[in-house]
Amino acid sequence: MSIMEFWSHSDWVIKVLLLVLGVVLVMVFEKLYHYFLNYKSMQQLQNMNTLNELDTMDESFIKETLLEIKNFSGSSEALFNSFVGVKLDLYEHYMMRYVTIIGVVAILSPMLGLIGTFIGVWHVFEGVGNIGLNDPAVIAKGIKEVIIDTMAGLVVAVIAMIFYKTFEFIGAKSVTKFEEKLYKLLRGQDA
After folding, report:
1. pLDDT tens-digit profile of 157-169?
2. pLDDT class of 34 with cuts at 50, 70, 90
3. Which of 5, 131, 157, 163 has its CA 20 to 30 A from that of 44?
4. Are the C-beta atoms of residues 40 and 174 closer than 8 Å to each other?
5. CA distance 108 to 99
6. What is the domain range of residue 110?
7. Cα-flanking dihedrals φ and ψ of residue 97, to 5°?
């Protein structure tokens, strides 16, 4: 069976789940690309001892954040600390972009598969009601729909959950490392 045949014979639940999986995979590739760039920036950051060495870094979100912190012209230490806290929150938001959406897909996909399951069971009962129990093909078609919809929902959910938890871990670890390095640079310690 070709992909086009599978698409044309699938119900709307399968089509929605496949489209959602495609969107999740696009987000995954985007996150992987940004995590790779972030990893390179963090490697450069680890070799820095002061914020005056920012010119040696490649352009990145980390460099922009550090430049904004370095060039802050507030009048009080409390204002500066608040500014640093906001910048750390923005960095965390940057690292977690799309992660929540992937998590929502992981949660909702089995529910969408369950809707397909109910529709398949409804078709089974509808076929039995119209034709009776004389034609097992009607029952088999409905059971097939039930199994495929349930399985598709679970497959999409498992894939999305794996990426969700992985990205959540990577994002949290990166934020912690960045925060630690930033405070060391701000205190002027050898980082």
Report:
1. 999 999 999 999 9
2. very high
3. 163
4. no
5. 14
6. 18-40+60-67+77-183
7. -60, 135
| Residue 112 burial (10 A CB sphere; 0-12, 13-18, 19+) | buried
Residue 176 is assigned to a structural domain of this protein? yes
In a domain, 10, yes or no: no
Q: Could you please report the per-residue DSSP string of 107-133?
A: HHHHHHHHHHHHHHHHHHHHHHHHH-T
Tokens of 100: 């929540």
CA 113 to chain centre: 20
Q: Distance (Å, rounded) from C-alpha 191 to C-alpha 176?
A: 14
Q: Which of 177, 175, 20, 188 is nearest to 88 (CA)?
A: 175
Q: Helix, strand, or coil here: 27?
A: helix
Which residue shows structure tokens 């598969």?
A: 113
pLDDT, tens digit, 9 for 90 and up, residues 171-186: 999 999 999 999 999 8
